[in-house]
Amino acid sequence: MTAQVRPLEPGDGSRALRPVILVVDDEPGLRESFRLILDDDYEVVDVPDGPAALDVLRSAQVDLVLLDIRLPGMDGIEVLERIKALDESVEVILVTAVKTVRTAVAAMKLGAFDYLTKPLIVGQHPEVQKLFRLVSHVSRTSTTVLITGESGTGKELIARAIHRQSPRRDKPFVAVNPAAIADTLIESELFGHEKGAFTGAFQRKLGRFELAQGGTLFLDEIATLRPELQAKLLRVLQEREIERVGSGRAIKIDVRIIAATNVDLTEAVARGGFRDDLYYRLNVVHLAVPPLRARREDIPLLVRHFIRRFNHEFGKRIDGPTPEALAALCAYGWPGNVRELQNVVERSAVLVEGASIGVDDLPMELSVGAPGDTFSEAVPLNEATDRFERQMVLRMLDRVDGNVSEAARALGIHRNSLKAKLARWKIRARDLRSGAQ
Hints:
Helicase, Ruva Protein, domain 3, 13% strand
């Protein structure tokens, strides 16, 4: 869908009622993501490649171009040159999944306004689109935000997206995970300390709150914070001031707090593990990030995105997964969510030798099937039966270290029948033996 943009008229000088942003990216899902984030305040036009972008610029008024570096045919740097030749006043921000200093320098010399690395909050599922809209709305304020979701769903990416779209974007974004810091050091890390405050405090140290002054402090895994530090954090939220360890002097702070957790804080409050008053202070705006298994239709989009990224990083030319491999990726339960998917695609991209990622290039657990994984109700019975049978066979072969004869006996079928099934599924039993991968 293309926004209705007022065409250029010689000598008119008129503009669209709202600023116009042209998004240039060959991934439909990313274009849709930008549209969802920007549509409330801007007229958004999106195109898949450089020539289409230049056609828009020749015929319509555009205020800003969000330009992907990795485009088919004409790459982003060449498109940038041609845009500036057409209209020097049009601002261009280059956007890509991989940021390199050389490309950034080249872009700035050609007149790019800025250079940003893509955040992966890609998705077309209704819940993800709803999340995009909430991120866009909450970014305009400095209100406290609580982000919940399983590990690997991208909670920090959401926090960074909020910061980048906020009036605080030019100030620091500081992330801290209390669970990754020794209990004896957390207070000092958060609030800082004075020289001599404790053994080993040889000089004054600024804490994360002061380092984030004017910007955003992201507190990951907030549920792991000790009770006494929960009380101190509550005071910070109430009074907007901190005290360094070893100092009785209050320091005023101007910091937006975004907290995240992968546990149910309401349950933690009920069992006394988390302060209810702190929970209510943090939970001003709640953003729930859905797990990947709840938005399986986004998996192909994410896979394509990661393949493009790793093609660039590893100098490969992988077209994508085979239909069988994509089916396996979509059927898997993804307990590690988007982070696990990224790791699987990276591993496969490193190991694959051809132009496509096949089932044999995926980790064993994707072929075998995750325990407790269920089939979609939309799957036809014959397909569900075949998939279930395949999982049973693979589990048995894994148990007997790839011995086809032994697996056939255990399954109660003839060895030739099992070999025929494996051939139909394009599975090589020798790859299932210990040490084969």
